[in-house]
């Protein structure tokens, strides 16, 4: 008789009977679901740290403390525009910023690419300090400027205003222009208009075109 009762059970009754597949599913779910939830939560927490793409954060500047540690960057690049809207690019082999509250960045192996009206120009120096607020570079040591048309300028201890395209040096300066060569104890230069003002022992040597 029990065999007859078993044979007359519906598929739903057999599925819900003790020891059936339903019991096995419930037993597995009782253990598996909490584990799966824990794995999912861990993934959501760790995803921003392991994601290959960019991650954005919105911070309240009134509630975020200023970082005290030093920031060090290899192969840094800064971009900006001058007063005429022309772009410039400042590259450095390394950059160190003392803190996020200080706009001064210590640069090494720096070069600045400037687009002038008649073509590109480049400034190079072994080291300098870049003020991100004023977009000025202060160089303690040698600095070289080269532009199209045979212009070259070499000086030391200078301040370069990338926004206004001006250079002012306190050390001895030498240079080459299409008309010849010059030297002086100090100089002020407008890089855009190619005008140079020499102070102290100014010398200009004009080379005739036929002698070149």
From TrEMBL:
Record-annotated membrane-spanning stretches: 31-51
UniProt keyword terms in alphabetical order: Membrane, Transmembrane, Transmembrane helix
Record protein name field: Lipopolysaccharide export system protein LptC
Origin: domain of life: Bacteria
